[in-house]
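FAQ: What does a ligand-bound record look like?

Like this one, built around 7,8-dihydrobiopterin:
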Amino acid sequence: MSADRNASPPPGAAADWTISQGWENYTAEDHGVWLTLYERQSKVLPGRACDQFLKGLDALDLHGDGIPDFERMSEKLRALTGWSVVAVPGLVPDDVFFEHLANRRFPAGNFIRKPDQLDYLEEPDVFHDVFGHVPMLTDPTFADFMQAYGEGGRRAMGLGQLHNLARLYWYTVEFGLMRSAEGLRIYGAGIVSSKSETVFALDDASPNRLGFDLERVMRTPYRIDDFQQVYFVIESIESLLEAAMKDFGGLYARLPSLKDIPIEGVLPTDGVFHHGDQHYAHRGGRKAA
Ligand code: HBI
Ligand code: FE
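The answer part, i.e. the structure of the complex:
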């Protein structure tokens, strides 16, 4: 899930792959897609998305009249946690991505999907990146975690451990769940930006829901083409930040000798919130739907 590492920036992009968002170029159709997706999510997220996400959505007033202007949104975001959103053409090389995160800049694709792609698209577009990722950046602890992830990413690249770190990102920032007094809640961007996975991740009997553990996550492969077969649950954002601040050194030394854990496996050491029956994946997933 990233651009070729040695790629050079596309024409018109700066050395750090940033481009101007070109807000004035969005068509009425583009804004209409944003509003359609926003309306759909606002119907399914209450009672499913975590409080921090819903508060972030309000704080940034992301509904507006369509696709937000990154400059204006970044002014509000900077005042809250020092983060800003920079426009990029799509996925950027890992080292560029980590460099931005380590400097509290979130790289967001400036394009939006077409009306016939509402449910699924290959690359993250502005709805996935901004609606999915940015509200959580208004939470000071999560903001610190994302910067720590960026710094960890640079180190992991140096150690050749990027694929393990990518799993941490995938099972938290993209597809993470958290405990709350009212039950499990969603904070992962890949889930909150998808109507169908918002429901699947919390309600469906198919996937496993297991307690988050750093090593466990780093040993677990993930799906890039369909709903996840396992979701990991953090106790709190504070506990996630604490895990990230731990020196990964010891873990990186151990990981190469540890085998991957099968994606639908449940270990005796796992904290089990739900042991799924994997009916969705066994039936062939999205393709069979
Ligand atoms: N680039 N724009 C963008 N957005 C991402 O989420 C992203 C990326 N490049 C690499 C990447 N994610 C993942 O490989 C990270 O786990 C590194
Ligand atoms: Fe994402």
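Follow-up question: can I read anything off the structure? Yes, for example: The mean pLDDT is 94.
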